[in-house]
Amino acid sequence: MTHYSPQSFDVKGGPEDGRAHLPLLRKALETAGLDGFLIPHEDEYNNEYLPDCAERLAWATGFTGSAGSAIVLRDEACVFTDGRYTVQVREQVDPKIFQIEDVSETPPHVWLSKHAKKGSVIGYDPKLHSPDTLDRFKRAAEKAGAELVPVDTNPIDQAWENRPAAPSAKLSVQPMEFAGETHADKRKRVGEAIAEDGAEFAAITAPPSIAWLFNIRGGDVRRSPLALGAALIKSDGTATLFVNPDKVTDEVRAHLGNEVALRPEHEFADGLHALKGHTVSVDPGLASAWVFDQLTEGGAKIVRRRDPILLPKAIKNDTELEGAKQAHIRDGAALTRFLHWLDTEAQSGAIDEIEAAVKLEQFRTASGQVKDLSFDTISGAGPNGALPHYRVSTASNRKLERGTLYLVDSGGQYPDGTTDVTRTVPIGDPSAEMRERFTLVLKGHIALSLARFPKGTTGGQLDTLARLPLWQAGLDYDHGTGHGVGSFLGVHEGPQRIAKAASDEPLKPGMIVSNEPGYYKPNAYGIRIENLIFVTGPDPVPGGERPMMGFENLTLAPIHRDLVDTSIMTDRELDWLNAYHADVGARIAPLVEGEVKAWLEAATAPITR
């Protein structure tokens, strides 16, 4: 069961954290006989959003971004991030005690090979690294003449005073009315996939996979209804779930039945050791090196295979798709009330980013049906909107000033679906440039929405459609165009995605992806238009020779008319926008009233040239 907590806008992290904690960590390393330590952002479960007790990188460095790492040696240390956090990392990390590197220019293993001293001993927590990442570090250490060694206890955990306790929220059952398939049937399907992989068992450590497989949800992870734990699944569909017993209610125990054994999570190592002589499938991209180590020590035969749950979880069944539609209708009503508020009260120029984020949160929670946000709202006014992964705090808070653009990216967790939507709204009158660039983004959004494509097409092959109008104007954006979305699970899920460097995973009917092209003018404004869509078909095309797949829209929220420059839109694009708005009006109007309903009618009225 998720435990809703309102957004906090307090300043977290910062240089003082690194200044206070780095000496404590170095003292712990000295006690452990180590000359250095590797600090990834990841936790033991490879979560995107971490429990407070797992925010080790933030504790050690002050950097609170969701992607990054650090290496601490006796006399120097370095923090590594990517281009999304160029500004944030320099605000939060003290450059006098940490070097700061971009991972695209200096990967951590390359830095280690040049900075580790010959004969030094560098520690790592095997539960926090993938085997492939560790292989790179081991080769780098060897090149420097250093030794890389695992630790049984993470020295950060030892040095961290008043470290938050591990979460222990109760599990809940995801009922058939939302899941659409029993966990017995899911386990049978997954067991058959394990056998096809040439294995007898699969070791699963990804919380979203466990939640989907057993039709359970939890409250251990912020903004995602996940429980921390692990599982072993046999090719006959029987399974063992390793989870803290305090989380298991009588209802969950009865729901799991006698084909699922329950054991405390601390016995997972014993469970792995017991697989001596058996063939075990493990995903090296999700499971930690520790899992591989335990299986090897226990005498199991390991086959490296993708988590057998990833693909079936990504392909939503009819019940899950219907749930997503219903969740988006309710979410659309909340968004419509918020967009009306932005178009009226927030036009004063006196409202700030935090007030706007809180207002949207209030509209969502007023329904009584949202279980949580799906992520902390990106509420970016003016120049802050040009930071794609911006998070507002009391330190960065800006007014929604007239003559600027406001970008808001938000979502909700509903029992039947997860939402994620971005809208860009003018505060006051937009400039001609703002309207032109918004319309170029809109043209790309529409092009992807209208795409038809054959079986076997990947997201990477479609990514160009969303970028082409921008490219032709000499513009682009540096994030992916689309990510997968779970069914009352994580707001970011694979294996599908739409991006320049997308995986080779073909899109399949039932997959939900985001469609979110954007444009960002540094120190000025940001534009992004994001809807969730799902893959349909394949269906015959009149006069065509091959059936084609396509997309159906889920998100229901007006796209701001004042930012649309119809002079650079084709008739087909305008037809799409008018049809989209007609659908929004028809579905949302029954859920709103008074001024909001009148505003919605105007906001979704047909646009003519």
UniProtKB/TrEMBL annotation:
Organism domain of life: Bacteria
Organism, as annotated: Hyphobacterium vulgare
Family: Belongs to the peptidase M24B family.
Keyword Protease included in the entry's annotation: yes
InterPro entries attached to this UniProt entry: Creatin/AminoP/Spt16_N (IPR029149), Creatinase/aminopeptidase-like (IPR036005), Creatinase_N (IPR000587), Pept_M24 (IPR000994), Pept_M24B (IPR033740), Peptidase_M24_C (IPR032416), X-Pro_aminopeptidase_P (IPR050422)
Creatinase N-terminal domain mapped to chain residues: 25-153
Keyword vocabulary terms for this entry: Aminopeptidase, Hydrolase, Metal-binding, Protease
Residues in Peptidase M24 domain copies: 324-536
GO molecular function, one term: aminopeptidase activity
Start and end residues of each Peptidase M24 C-terminal domain: 547-607
UniProt keyword Hydrolase, yes or no: yes
Enzyme Commission identifier(s): 3.4.11.-
Protein name (database record): Aminopeptidase P family protein
